Amino acid sequence: MTSIVEINTARPVTPHGILVEELRKTLEMAEAASVSTEVLTSLRLAYQLAAGLDTYTSECTTKESSALTALALKTSNENWRKRFGDGETVRQLEQEMLSGHLEGQTLKMFVRMTKAKRVLEVGMFTGYSALAMAEALPDDGKLVACEVDAYVASFAQNCFADSPHGDKIRVEVAPALETLRKLVAAGECFDLIFIDADKKEYVEYFQTILDGNLLASDGLICVDNTLLQGQPYLPREKRTANGDAIALFNSTVAQDSRVEQVLLPVRDGLTLIQRLN
Ligand SMILES: C[S@@+](CC[C@H](N)C(=O)[O-])C[C@H]1O[C@@H](n2cnc3c(N)ncnc32)[C@H](O)[C@@H]1O
What we know:
This protein has 10 helices and 7 strands. By secondary structure, it is an alpha/beta fold. The chain has 2 domains: 15-59, no CATH class; 66-275, Vaccinia Virus protein VP39 (Rossmann fold, 3-Layer(aba) Sandwich). The radius of gyration is 20 Å and the shape is globular. S-adenosylmethionine binds at residues 93, 97-99, 123-125, 128-129, 146-149, 152, 175-176, 196-198, 201. Pfam families: Methyltransf_3 (PF01596).
């Protein structure tokens, strides 16, 4: 689910991870109760099918670079709670924010497949996805990463310095909407844009990108967390404010006749969007 290095994450943050945890608990309850062997056998198979999926997809995916492994490890070893408590980060960050191996390699392949030279990332955190994408950029390629938190931006920049691809990345430390408007005013344009910042601002990021012509005519937008732990399709009372925001974003995109999109069940949901010309 996350990086291929052993990360001490206990909390499932994807619909699939939550499903595995629910099946594990159900199996445990069924084993303690007097349910039939038939039900137990079926439940065990369901658990094994679900529990093995993330490990297997990761095993069958190209390994991440040593720089990405080091970055993921450093992120998991950081005491994010203390950083926030000490006022060093502007909000509570957590290692689970890092996209990780499968999604990183997916984004990297999209950059290579689309022959992108200019990439924009909205929401960088410690830089895992930014560095994964930069690794697929040509030598003269550029990636602009928007991040509001100065502490995490400098954390990422230290990691980028250890990679031969780090100098392709320019970090803009400011609220993402401010940076997007600045890029619009400067007439900038990107071949691939990855959105992964504040879920409540997703609709505004999307509209600013399309209205401001930040996306090249055959460009690709990739949007993370569009399944948001299953909240958009679970009963409404299970939804958080972020769940509401993602449900609104998904329906906004679906109703926008300027684009075509597909929601892939990669990790916490990855939507691909292209503009119809
Ligand atoms: C989910 S994390 C990004 C993870 C990263 N893309 C990766 O794959 O490892 C979201 C990041 O967006 C940042 N963020 C949240 N709201 C923002 C805003 N309004 N402007 C810029 N960055 C923001 C957070 O500080 C956090 O570092």
